[in-house]
Amino acid sequence: ATKMALRAGLRSKRGLTGVAVMRMQSPPVNSLNLELLTDICIALEKLEMDKSCRGLIITSNQPKVFSAGLDILEMYGKSPEHCGEFWKAVQEMWLKFYGSNLVTIAAINGSSPAGGCLMAMTCDYRIMADNPRYSIGLNETQLGIVAPFWFKDTLMNTVGHRTTEMALELGLLYSPAEALKIGMVDQLVPEDQVLTTATEAMTKWLAIPDHARQITKSMIRKPTIDKLMSNREDDVKNFVKFISKDSIQKSLGVYLEMLKKRKA
Ligand SMILES: CCCC/C=C/CC(=O)SCCNC(=O)CCNC(=O)[C@H](O)C(C)(C)COP(=O)(O)OP(=O)(O)OC[C@H]1O[C@@H](n2cnc3c(N)ncnc32)[C@H](O)[C@@H]1OP(=O)(O)O
Questions:
Q1: Across 101-229, where does the E strand assignment appear?
Q2: What are the start-end ranges of the H helices in 27-148?
Q3: Residue 223, SS3 per DSSP
Q4: How far apart are CA 128 and CA 123, in angstroms?
Q5: Which CATH number fits domain 4-211+228-263: 3.90.226.10, 2.60.40.10, 3.30.230.10, 3.30.360.10?
Q6: CA atoms in the 13 A half-sphere facing the CB of 179
Q7: Which residues partner with 20 through β-bridges?
Q8: Residue 70 known to be catalytic
């Protein structure tokens, strides 16, 4: 099954060219498994190489959810080898998005916990549906797991030091209004206007000459990217060691059960 729809080189009625729209469609909740992560990375790599493409809007084709974050089933009851491969794919996704030369806009049309929030925060601009039922944030500690330093860095670069302490230690999930207040998202709009607003915002970003914007973006983000680049292998080892612990596996199992019970 295709996990993603991609429309590159989109020409809208308003004459916006060179903008791709990536719609995640991995039912039910766009949890980021190895397959979806790989598809996303390949698509982004192709767009980066396509000289006619200058911008990317990422959104969801699933109702009510942008992305449920990392697929817990990729980390629960799996071999250390599998966990290592999975983590490399998570790193790759982050590196590609955070370091992208394209203008990237997240059109967040549903809830976006943990890895979903991380993915949105790698973008240059975030527009979220103004629906109080939706939430966004890095809730890892609520699962009994610890977000790695580059999740923390991304959050810190987005909302600042003190807010990161509260958000990350408490594993807070924010309503769209709260997320706007702390700067986790940049704009709230009615649900049916998320994509059109993203297109409007894109026009503004594309008015800036690419080379000037790209060099500026790189200057701001490079130190954070370099930190992971020079620690990639250790980061994989740390993840595998941490996630393989009996106590952590037990926490993930309890959390998965809670998700199922909540549904019942
Ligand atoms: C150790 C180093 C750090 C590792 C870092 C990890 C970062 C992460 O991203 S961990 C993942 C954290 N994600 C979450 O906590 C989100 C959990 N999901 C939800 O809160 C909700 O599903 C939702 C708000 C996203 C959507 O709610 P909705 O009511 O529409 O759907 P549900 O009925 O809850 O879910 C449907 C179905 O999907 C399963 N599921 C949901 N999220 C995940 C997930 N992240 N991984 C795997 N599976 C997930 C859920 O259990 C349901 O399954 P069943 O239909 O089989 O019951």
A1: 103-108, 112-113, 125-129, 136-137, 187-189
A2: 34-49, 80-98, 115-121
A3: helix
A4: 13
A5: 3.90.226.10
A6: 32
A7: 56
A8: yes
- Ordered by start, the domain boundaries in the chain are 4-211+228-263
Give the type of residue at 152.
K
CA atoms within 13 A on the CB side of 155: 31
Closest CA to 218 of 99, 121, 49, 93: 99
Cα separation of 198 and 181, whole Å? 19
- Residues with a CB atom less than 6 Å from ligand 1: 28-29, 31, 64-65, 68-73, 111, 113-115, 139-140, 143, 145-148, 239, 242-243, 259-260, 263
Q: Is 140 a catalytic residue?
A: yes
- Give, for all 264 residues of the chain, the pLDDT tens digit: 456 665 544 344 444 689 999 999 999 999 999 999 999 999 999 999 999 999 999 999 999 999 999 999 999 999 999 999 999 999 999 999 999 999 999 999 999 999 999 999 999 999 999 999 999 999 999 999 999 999 999 999 999 999 999 999 999 999 999 999 999 999 999 999 999 999 999 999 999 999 999 999 999 999 999 999 999 999 999 999 999 999 999 999 999 999 999 876
* Side chain identity, residue 58: I
Query: Alpha-carbon distance 12 to 190, whole Å?
Result: 20
Q: pTM of whole model > 0.90?
A: yes
Residue 102 among the catalytic residues: no
Q: How far is the CA of 155 from the centre of ligand 1 (A)?
A: 20
